[in-house]
Every structure is written in C-alpha cells, then in structure tokens.
Amino acid sequence: MKRIEKGLKKLKRKIALIAVASLILSQNIYADENPQKLDSITVTAQKTEENIQEVPISMTVFDEVTIEDKKIESIKDIAPYTSNFVLLDKGSGYSAPSIRGISNTITTLSSNNMSVMVDGIPVSYSHGFNETLMDIERVEVLKGPQGTLYGKEAQAGVINVITKKPDNETMGKIGVELGEDNKRQYTLSVNGPIVEDKLFVGVSAKHYEKDGFVKNTLLGEYNDKENNYGKAHLRYTPSDNLEMSLISSKLKYDNKGKDYVGAIISAGDRSLSTDVLGYDKSSITSHALKVSYDINDYLLESITTYRNIKTDALRASANYDHDHNEEHDKYAQEFRISNSSDPFKWVAGVYTDKDEDENSSSYIYPTFVSPVRTTEESDSVGVFIHTDYAINDKFSFISGVRYDKDNKEYEDKTTNTKLELSNNEISPKVSLKYQHNQESMYYTTISKGYRAGGFWTYAPSGYSPQYDEETLWNYEIGAKNSFFDNRLIVNAAIFYMKIDDMQVKVHPIAGSTQAYIDNAAKATSKGFEIELQGKLTDTIELFGTYGYTNVTFDDYKDSNGDYSGNKNIFAPEYNYSIGIQYRDTNGYFARVDVNGYGETYFDKENENSRDAYHLVNAKIGYETEHYDIYLYGKNIFDKEYNSVSMFGGGGIIYSPPREIGVQLTYRF
After folding, report:
1. Structure pTM?
2. What contacts 20, CB < 8 A, 6 or more positions away?
3. What is the pLDDT of residues 546-569, one digit of tens each?
4. Which stretches of the chain score pLDDT less than 70?
5. Up-side HSE of residue 154: CA atoms within 13 Å toward CB?
6. So what's the pLDDT on residue 108?
C-alpha cells in the first residue's frame, strides 16, 4: 500500500509539473507568436447540440482527427485516454467496464452499469466494447449517472458513438497495416452523393487478421485472430427540415483458441494446454433508422434500432469444454421532441425496448455433457424530460426526471424453472451552472442512477435466483476553463457517490464456493478527474488526464467474512495518460503517449489483484494531401500486465504483447 501511495504522489507531482510547464511555456510562446487555437467541439450529450465547454457534465470526447491520431480502432481503445474509466479484459472478447469505481462484476444480460449507444443503438452485451470504429464523427464518454436521458443502463456513465454523415463531397480512403505477429489489416471507406443535395451514401469495410500470442502447448497452435467488418450509411434529405438516415453494420469473427486459462495457471510464457483448440465464429449485426423533422422551433426525432448477437464458440479449458451457442436480439424505439429557444430549452421523449435471448449451449466434461437450454425476455418503457433554464446571463438551472419500468422473464427448459421480475425506478437530476465568462464555466450536480435487477440461476438450493435493482446518488462539482484565447483547456470534476442495495455475491455456507446474488452491500465512491489539452505552438500539442477513485464497501459481509472497508473489484484506484504530439505544415508527424492504471482488485477479500502498470505508445509519420505513412508502436517496451486469479482458482488472462507496425493511407 505504501508503494502505491508513494507512486501516486510521484504521479501527481508529474502531472502538476506538466500543467505548470504548459502554462509557463504558453505565456512565453504566446508573447512572441500567435499559434492556432484548439478546435471547439459540438456534442449531443444532452440530446441537443451544444459546445462541450458549456455542458455541465464531466466528459471526454474524441473527434475524427483525435481518433486517427491516437490510433483508436474500437471502443476499448478509448479507455486508456479517459480519466476514471477502465475496460478490464475478461478474455474471449468480453470486457468489464468501470467508471468512477462502479464496475460490472456480474456477467449477466440483466445488469449493466453503463450504457453504450452506437448511433442510438443500445449495446447491452459486453461484446459491444469491441465495436469497430470507422467513419466516426466523434465518441463521447459521459461520466456519472445519466439515467434522466439514457435510462436503466446509465448508472455509472454513457458512451455515445456517432457516425460521420455523408454529404455532397465525394471522398474515399484506402488503408493498409502490416505489423508484428503477421498482422494484416485492410480498410476501405467511400462517401458521397447519389443525388446531389438529396441522397448520400457512405460505405466502409475492414479486414483484420493476426497470429495469436497464447500457445496451446499440447496442440502446438496459437489463438489467432481474424474478423471482418462492414458498414453502410444511407442519408436522405428531401427538404431543408427533414432528414432520414439508415445505418447498418456487421462484425464477423473467425478466431482460434483463447487468451486465458480459467482453472489453473499454466506453465510457460503465455501458454495453456488443452486437447481442444477452440474457436469463435460469433457475429454482431446492427441497424438504426433515424428520422428528424424541424418544424418552427421544435425538433421531432425518431430512432428505431435493432441489434443481433450470435455467439458461436467452442472454449476449451483444463476440466471441460464450453460449446457456446447463444442468440440475443434487442429492439428499441425512441421518440423525442425538443426546443432550443432561449431562455428555456427542453427535450422530452419516450423510450421502449425488447430483449430476447436464447441459449442452447453445452458444457462438455470427460464423462458427460451438461446442456444449457434457457430463454430470457424483457421489455421496458421509459418516459423523460430534461430542461435548461437560463436564469440570467450567468446562471442556468438544469433539471430532469425519468420514469423507467421493465419486466423480465427467465425460463430454464432443462429444469423447468420459470422466473419473473419487475423493476420500477425514478431517476432525477438537478444542476446549477455558472457561466463566469466565455472561457470559464462552473457547475454542481445531484443525480441518481440505478442498475436493473436480474437473474442469477447458479444460486444454491433454497436461495433466491434473482436480485433487485441497485441505486446510487451522485454529488458533483465541476469546472471547465480555457486560457490564452482557447489555446489551453483544463476541465476538472470532484464527485461523491453513495451506493445502496449493491448487487454482490453472497456465500451462505462458510467455506463453500457456492454463492448467490443479493442486494447485500453498501459502498461509497469518491474522487476527482482532470483533463487538459494545450496548443503550445502551431506544431506542438500537449495532452493529459488523471482520475482518482476511492470506492470502498461500507457494509458487506457473509458467512466467509466481513469485507467492510475493502475496495470494490475491477476498480483501479487511479488511471492517467500523458501525451505530446508534433504536426507541421511540411507533413511531419510524431506522437508519444504514456498510459497507466493503479492496482486493481479481483475479489472482495482484496487478496488477488493486478499491480499498477503503465504502457508507452508511439507514432511517427509523414502526411500529404493524398497519402500518409506511419510507423507505430503499441506497448513498445513489451510490458506484461497479466490478470492472475481474476475468477479465482488461480486462473490467468494474458496481456497482449508489443505491436510494432507500418500504416499506409491513401485518400482520393
């Protein structure tokens, strides 16, 4: 613990020095030169268009240029650059998200701690964090409860992914990447008009393959990766006030083996030993139909979405093989009406969705096969209103409330078990914003978030296989400031959250591994986050983020012990990123980033954890009007940060090794 605190103090000093150095350099440089300003960013975090610096929400935004510069290729790549956000790799493409220490520790369809919206398509499955990002306008990461506008799966935060709109400009891009471990990646995107000013289309595609890094010593094979992705965006604007978009995408995996050992730590470097190689041929298909109609001062919007996940995988382990066949469908519809006239802005709407999941998997043991035949269905409705009233030129009062109701049904056809569950929750939010001037804004917020209840059918006999919703109250103070004529931006927030009816595992029998899920804990999360971006000269930019979270159990115990005072699992105490970038008018580009996380616990006893670590990424290149060429490196010092005993029993999830590669892009 002392080692962590010492490292944390050093890190704080480094960040403070960087911030001070930025200010000093800025003052010295700006006295003699007139460098370019940082670009302003328009976001839709509150479902209306606003300048990011005027939105009273702690958020990190990645625009199109930033996504390319930081080599962000999927949602999981944004986590290292976002304060107080982590995506913990759970193997086989699954991730456990954590925002401000509120983590997803229960792997079920029923309970999610955060919402991911891809062009309005709600992602309620942990496979969604591998969503490919191509032709993206921006990604918005909103921290803290956002239930007023986003509902039941926004307890800890929201990730919004917005695709770039095709327009009258015809353009295309071809990309090729070659890297270590025989990496090959090919990309293509084309956008332009079919009928000028009326009908537009955008098409993008990607092929990815790479040799694996975990060897099956028994078969001599590796966990090779391969996937294909395609997206089509059709946009129609028959009049100035009517717009319709249809966005469809599909991601198809063809992976071999796996990157973790679930039962025991295998001998050797990144290796395992099973007599079955395994595979993953899963797919994700998404469709979104968006219609907006602007009439006078009112904007009417409809978003109709569908998402299908087909899991087709064979996952081998030391004791059994898991033949995983599952299909999940999610339908969603949202209607909104908004008015952006000063001084009173508002948005109101109704949201409905329906989930259907059918699992026909099998656990294959040496002497018998255990089939799984289950179905889970749910439907929900949410009604919300969000308002923004400008009291005067300085103060604004923001408020909102949402009512959600959802019903769930579960059936196990092998045991003839049927379960039903209903959730009802009201999610309020109030904020007071003080716009000191064009460069400085301060806010304070009180908001409520909740995580829906669900089913846990592994509960031992005599204990409930279902659990209720979890709630939290968030108290937050934040500031957004720009200096030197918008050449330095510093945003920060301090938060305090009380979590009640926390969904946790309870062991009812002393010494037994059997457990059920119950709302048996209380916890407190407190911390802060700060992000800065500085344009030191026309060619040099500096970036930095730091997030600190202390989330502890106030009350949590079962027959195996008392865990009060322990840290929540999957929630590192801090994370940070520091980066510097050079780009000049002659086409030369260079960038270096250092990203790191604090110690992360894997169990409520706080006995198993992953040590603090940091990774270094770099990218250099030459850019012209029509082509770019880069040499890049991810984890260039080949740092290992394996997750040992994440699931108990001595299992291990191997961290990926260094990747050095060349990237070529041609624009036409």
Report:
1. 0.91
2. none
3. 999 999 999 999 998 999 999 999
4. 1-35, 107-110, 125-128, 260-268, 318, 648-650
5. 28
6. 61
CATH architecture of 2-667: Beta Barrel (2.40)
CA-based nearest residue to 233, from 259, 204, 268: 204
Provide the pLDDT for residue 174. Answer: 97
Name the one residue in this structure whose structure tokens are 């099973």: 274
- CA angle 204–207–213, rounded 5-degree value: 145
pLDDT for the residue numbered 320: 79
Domain ranges of the chain: 2-667
- SS3 for 551? strand
Q: What pLDDT, on the 0 to 100 scale, is given for residue 395?
A: 97
Q: Which are the contacts of 514, defined by CB distance < 8 A and separation ≥ 6?
A: 460, 507, 508
Task: Look at the block and give the residue holding tokens 């259907």.
Answer: 356
Phi, psi for 434 (deg, rounded to 5):
-120, 110
Q: Strand pairing of 183-195 and 221-222?
A: unpaired
Residue 462's region, left for phi above 0, alpha for psi from -120 to 50, else beta, is: left
Buried b (16+ CB within 10 A) or exposed e, 5-37: eebbeebeeebeebbeebbebbeebbeeeebee
pLDDT of residue 457: 83
Among the listed residues 546, 620, 528, the one whose alpha carbon sits nearest the alpha carbon of residue 580: 620
**CA 209/CA 185 separation, integer angstroms:** 6
Handedness of CA 134, 591, 89, 209 (dihedral sign): positive
| CB neighbours of residue 422 within 10 Å | 13
Q: Return the number of other C-beta atoms located less than 10 Å from residue 611's C-beta.
A: 13
CB atoms within 10 A of CB 552: 18
DSSP structure string for 468-533? --EEEEEEEEEEEEEETTTTEEEEEEEEEEEEEEEEEEE--STT----EEEEEEEEEEEEEEEEEE
Q: Which residues contact 511 (CB under 8 A, 6 or more apart)?
A: 560
User: Which residue is it, tokens 């395609």?
Assistant: 230
